[in-house]
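seq as requested:
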Amino acid sequence: MTITTGLNEQLLIITHQIRELEHAITVARNRRKWSHLSLAFGPLLALLLYAMLWIPRISTTTIWAAYIPAVPIVIAFCIAAYVLKRYPGGPRLPDGTYSDRKLRVSLNSNVLACEMPVSS
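struct tokens:
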């Protein structure tokens, strides 16, 4: 009975670790997606605002009305892109910090394979 209980506890611990790893990978993928979006929309919006200055038919009040809410958004996109690229997320190390190393993940036929390259 005790052997079965020990095996069940080990199985529960392993499945819990797998669920934590899957969640961390999902978070890292979502952060990467948002990072790409912020890298695309930040410069695009800045370019649009710059182009708006060169159109002579747009009045100064209209330009100010567009710039007041848009400039903080451009700055927020730049900050978000930096933070998401700097801290991409992913699995935690045993000490609670996140690893800076690249994580290679493959999900094939419901089997999770995770390789972390060993730093030399």
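DSSP finds two helices and two strands in the chain.
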